[in-house]
Amino acid sequence: MPAISEIRRATDRAVTTTPWLTSRHSFSFGDHYEPDNTHHGLLVVNNDDVVAPHSGFDTHPHRDMEIVTWVLEGVLTHQDSAGNHGVIYPGLAQRMSAGSGILHSEKNDSATQPVHFVQMWVIPDESGISPGYQQHEIGHIGAELVTIASGIPGRDAAISLHNRGAALHAARLQPDDSVVAPAAPFLHVFVPRGRVTLEGVGELADGDAVRLTDTDGRRLTASAPTDLLIWEMHAELGGQNK
Asked: Residue 40, annotated ligand binder?
């Protein structure tokens, strides 16, 4: 079956704005509901957030969700009802498993610097698991794909996921650098900032995404300093592992 690609431009995303938050949603989220845009593969949330200094998300609940946070600039402080506390900054991978239920807050404690991060959600294989938290410093991210999070058996990653069909990869490219995306039944390529050309698809810039189905490995080549986040998925919601 030939690969199917769907480009989602930054300008097509719904946006939530408040005095302290700008949040751009790749999928239906909160008040922004589109019945034909609820997920791709196993990914149900891909929010690109900028939080102003001395502000953030007050304590709120989550349940039965694997939540991965990747900071691009600034520092985000996490606290939750299970007693976990983490400071998340560029190069540090973080995952919260909401499981049977958890409360948490996410704050920008800086007096001067906004924090820019991408938060991504996948549904776990099993509901009602014990809530959990994991973070791991990766350090320098360069012109090779680094596996940030994975639940795929036998796959090494900085942090684990309670989903056997999903893995998240990241790279930070300079002009003319290139990487090859994994081959997978479902792939979500997101460019939070930068400019790349995806083989067989075309150019992607700040905030653009591509949803690929039944894809072989495609090369991405940067024409500007670029951050890449790529979800490799071997199942879809309600489906079987492929």
From this structure: no
